């Protein structure tokens, strides 16, 4: 059994990329240092913030909620609450909602649930069926991602949040990076940095990713060590997504050449720098976002992606 590189106790964590093994105590210190470094380096938070954690009830967002809830106890100007967007995915979401509600009630965290049904008019299950009947070319994750981002911004603003923290980890980010490269979708890549905004739009709530430099296996271990990872539910649509394949590919590469994930993250940062200099990407902070002509929400185009999808689905009247 591997021994902690610092104190020699049995290790709970091994990093081949860093040539490091850590016991529970030293892993948690390492994890904390890593997240704090990201928060400092990218200036994710201000002295006074209402941070709303985009919580799905899954392991990453539960780990983030736990981490920020505890950190905020030592920062007087911070308030941390949780916001869950319930897409209405039968046989899945109800379990993760329960995990969030149980945690929030036990730890005294304010929480809010925003439903697809209330904001869009239909559950994701129903939207996926309607899309198929209409012969639209989209996978479930497309509707899910677009509507979830739309609702998250609206609901966060409605509850008075000043910033939304999402549980995206390094693995999620490099997967999205590669998916966008595969789809030749360079404009979306500039969005993948640790902070989006402050965009020059009064309705846009800033988004930050405190786990930007933390591996998925590290957030998972953090969640396990704090008793936050009590079951593994998987979205029934997950296997249909391109992310599923890209994730497996990157994990295989990492297995063969430890450190590949960190290299991809550094490549992403280089790509963002180059794209910004070339003026490629979504409207910059200086230019400001558009205001959707149909719903009035901030948008990257004159009509927001959520309204475009609603028009295609035939569930929006103009
Ligand atoms: Fe939504 Fe796709 Fe994630 Fe399921 S796997 S929750 S459909 S984004
Ligand atoms: Zn719109």
Give structural notes.
The protein is α/β, with parallel strands linked by helices. The protein has two domains: 1-33, no CATH class; 42-283, Rossmann fold (3-Layer(aba) Sandwich), CATH 3.40.50. Helix content is 47%, strand content 12%. The chain contains twelve helices and ten strands. A six-stranded mixed β-sheet has the order 5-4-3-6-8-7, sandwiched between helices. A two-stranded antiparallel sheet has the order 1-2. Helix 7 (170-182) crosses helix 10 and helix 7 crosses helix 11 (260-278). The longest helix is centred in the middle third of the chain and has 19 residues, at 140-158. The model has no long low-confidence stretch (mean pLDDT 93). The chain binds iron/sulfur cluster (SF4) and zinc ion. Zinc ion is lined by residues 292, 294-295, 297, 299, 304, 306-307.
Strand content: 5-15%
**How far apart lie the N and C ends?**
64 Å
Which strands sit side by side, in order, in the main sheet?
A: 5-4-3-6-8-7
Please give the CATH architecture of the largest domain: 3-Layer(aba) Sandwich
- Helix share of residues? 40-55%
CATH topology of the largest domain: Rossmann fold
Name the CATH superfamily assignment of the largest domain: HUPs
- Note the overall shape: globular
CATH class of the largest domain: Alpha Beta
Taking Cα atoms only, what radius of gyration do you get, to the nearest Å?
20 Å
Largest pleated sheet = 6 strands, mixed
Number of strands: 10
Report the uncertain regions.
Answer: none
H/E order of the elements? EEHEHEHEHHHEHHEEHHHEEH
- Count of alpha and pi helical runs: 12
List ligands, each type once: iron/sulfur cluster, zinc ion
Mean pLDDT: 93
Please state the structural category: alpha/beta
Q: Estimate nothing, just give the exact number of structural domains.
A: 2
């Amino acid at each position: 059994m591997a021994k902690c590189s610092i104190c020699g106790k049995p290790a709970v964590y091994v990093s081949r990329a860093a040539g490091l093994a850590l016991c529970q105590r030293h892993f948690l210190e390492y994890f904390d240092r890593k997240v704090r470094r990201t928060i400092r380096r990218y200036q994710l938070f201000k002295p006074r913030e209402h941070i709303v954690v985009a919580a799905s009830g899954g392991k990453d967002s539960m780990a983030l909620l736990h981490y920020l809830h505890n950190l905020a106890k030592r920062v007087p100007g911070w308030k941390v609450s949780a916001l869950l967007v319930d897409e209405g995915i039968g046989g899945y979401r109800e379990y993760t909602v329960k995990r969030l509600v149980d945690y929030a009630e036990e730890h005294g965290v304010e929480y809010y649930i925003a439903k697809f049904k209330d904001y869009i008019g239909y559950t994701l299950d129903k939207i996926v069926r309607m899309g198929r009947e209409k012969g639209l070319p989209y996978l479930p994750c497309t509707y899910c991602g677009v509507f979830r981002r739309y609702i998250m911004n609206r609901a966060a603003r409605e509850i008075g949040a000043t910033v939304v923290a999402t549980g995206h980890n390094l693995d999620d980010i490099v997967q999205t990076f590669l998916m966008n490269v595969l789809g030749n979708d360079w404009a979306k890549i500039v969005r993948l940095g640790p902070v989006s905004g402050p965009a020059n739009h009064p309705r846009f709530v800033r988004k930050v990713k405190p786990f930007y430099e933390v591996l998925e296996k590290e957030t998972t271990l953090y969640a396990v060590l704090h008793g936050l990872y009590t079951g593994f539910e998987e979205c029934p649509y997950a296997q249909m997504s391109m992310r599923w394949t890209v994730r497996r590919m990157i994990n295989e590469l990492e297995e063969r050449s430890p450190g590949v994930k960190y290299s991809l993250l550094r490549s992403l940062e280089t790509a963002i720098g180059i794209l910004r200099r070339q003026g490629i990407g979504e409207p910059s902070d200086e230019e400001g976002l558009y205001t959707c002509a149909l719903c009035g929400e901030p948008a990257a185009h004159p009509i927001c992606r959520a309204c475009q999808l609603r028009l295609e689905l035939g569930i929006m009247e103009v």
